[in-house]
Amino acid sequence: MKISNNIDSDGFSVPRIFSYGRDIHIQQSSESKAFKISIFNVTGQLLYETQTSDNSITLSDERWSPGIYGVRIVTDEGTFSEKVILL
């Protein structure tokens, strides 16, 4: 399981991105506005993209095989990326 910090060195609210089993969980601060989520495989191929304003979201797709995936979040505060491992 990979967990990111919630506050970066500049004091901005950083999304919390982590995996559990084959699910990807994203938790955003309560003040967040709409943000874009992109999921990539290790070769950089875009597998999933959505825009949401939910503070907490769980992504799951049975077509995603176990492995390492990249998660990119784009908000008004910036772009955040994290790698997650799906089991």
In total, the number of strands is 7
Using the 3D structure, state the CATH architecture.
Sandwich
Unreliable stretches: 1-10
Order of the strands making up the biggest sheet: 4-3-6-7
Q: Which of globular, elongated, flat, extended, rod-shaped describes the shape?
A: globular
Mean pLDDT: 84
Whole-number radius of gyration? 12 Å
Structural category: mainly beta
Class in CATH? Mainly Beta
Strand content: over 45%
| CATH topology (level 3) name | Immunoglobulin-like
- The helix tally amounts to 0
Distance between the termini: 9 Å
Summarize the helix and strand pattern as letters. Answer: EEEEEEE
**Largest pleated sheet:** 4 strands, antiparallel
Q: How many discrete domains?
A: 1
What report would you give on this structure?
- The chain is mainly beta and 87 residues long.
- The protein has a single domain, classed as Immunoglobulin-like.
- Helices cover 0% and strands 53% of the residues.
- It has a 4-stranded antiparallel beta sheet, with no helix packed on it.
- The protein is globular and about 35 Å long.
Write the layout of secondary structure elements.
Elements: E1 16-20, E2 23-27, E3 35-40, E4 46-52, E5 56-60, E6 67-75, E7 78-86
Antiparallel strand pairs: 1-2, 2-5, 3-4, 3-6, 6-7
